[in-house]
Amino acid sequence: MKRNGVPLGANDSLRRNLSNAFGACSPSHFWKHWNPIWGYYLAGYVYLPLRRYLPQPLATLVTFCASGVLHDLAIGLLGQGWQGFISLWFFCMGLFLVVSQAVRLDYGKYPFIIRVGINLVHLLACFVCALQIRDLVLN
What we know:
Layout: H1 13-22, H2 27-33, H3 36-51, H4 56-80, H5 85-102, H6 112-138
Helix pairs in contact: 1-2, 3-4, 4-5, 5-6
């Protein structure tokens, strides 16, 4: 896979992957570059089959939820039990992505370091939203 511009496993692969993801000009571009192998399988086995039956925004949101469930399942299989928090966080990130696509959010005109900050803030904001939702549900 050359989504980051170099062959998988090349010396510069991880640095370029992180640089492309965090320096992305939009949430869509961030997710295009974040974990390209996982994204490839999610696209092929979850998103594209769903896309045949669902509108793009809903297929995107369900794909993020499926990814969160798989992450929670992996954590549970490691002996931590079912937490469900990762699924909620991925739901929030998927919702943010869908909304950002609808409003055509693009911060490509900003310098690299500002784009890194924006992408970090969007991940952190989704994390905080997931914490707030979890606390509301549990209380």
